[in-house]
Specification:
Helices cover about 45% and strands about 15% of the residues. The chain contains 15 helices and 14 strands. The radius of gyration is 23 Å and the shape is globular.
Amino acid sequence: MKRVCIIGLGYIGLPTAVTLANYGHQVLGVDINRNVVTAINSKVPHIVEPGLQELLTNSINSGRLRADEKIDISDVYIICVPTPFKDLDEKRTPQPDISFIIAAAESLAPYLKDGDIVILESTSPVGTTSKLELFFSQKGINTKKIYIGYCPERVMPGNIFREITENSRIVGGITQDATAKITEFYRSFTKGEILMCNASTAEMTKLAENSFRDLNIAFANELSILCENQGINPWEVIKLANKHPRVDILQPGIGVGGHCIAVDPWFIVSADEENSKLIRTSREVNNYKTQWIINLIKSKLSRDGNLSKKKSSIGFLGVTFKPNIDDVRGSPAMNIVQHFIHAKYDVVVVEPHLNQLSDCKLVSIEHAIEHCDNLFILVRHDAFTDKITLEKLKLLGAIDLCGAYIN
């Protein structure tokens, strides 16, 4: 078993840390947020994920997991930090920001010794792993004697603990020896197939996966707009079209959010704007769908005579970026809610997965049903469909914008 240091204890880092601890590794979880460190050491998860509480408790009680704000000597270092956007370029293309990765490398560099493994799991532009190697080399570290590679996460929030061990993994090392060493480490807790390649191939594969999903969602979203504008039920069109043996159209939504599908395609576009026209268009379509939903809501309010009466209350059901989780990062639902709050409408939010939400008034679903003039379902949480029948939804005049009641 290895001494493992996980840098970044967010939605990927913390589940990875408790998984490794429960597979027998000695794990140090590092985060710059003191509140996160304190909570974890107190066996209090700061994120919502089914199974996390039990696994975290077991990990702490066993002595195989502890959290700290500082790195310590380890055998394996796994970087799980954010890779957000920075300023737009002249073509208004978001540019990737790898400063958190470099900061993590800066912190762990003094602890590296011969034979150590450094794994980047953060979704990154092609070439980032090579930049890590260069960074360590410039620090005077003999990178021929450590093993550096990229192994992107492939998990879905809400189902992380099954997928983190059962999904196939891609391992791309800077060298073939690095690929082999990192593969050996992942086999200590991964039941899925491990696919070996080089670092840049692994980086592009991760970006390609999420760009492919973004493209398919964009088709569904654009089709839904075209259907709605012609008075056609898009859900029926998709259901009928999918009866074709070689057609599988996804379900449209209110946009695309989160930290993967809405972000990763831009990493490809920013590296080669001239030859990534389809990927860029998909991103623009999915971003536009959110604005189109805002306009649709305004149209609904206008027909009801409420557009100028901003005291008319609006209840939005759901603000997370996908169903049944607590994560609002990049959430199109959150963008929609904030638009109407900033426009001075009387807005309340029903979000069963959050106890508080900045600038938003959280209420129960019963309160929203009783007191709101207009109800809009933005996220298809099970908590909604379990409590409100389709018949009641229609009686309330509520608008299902996310296909919550579509089978």
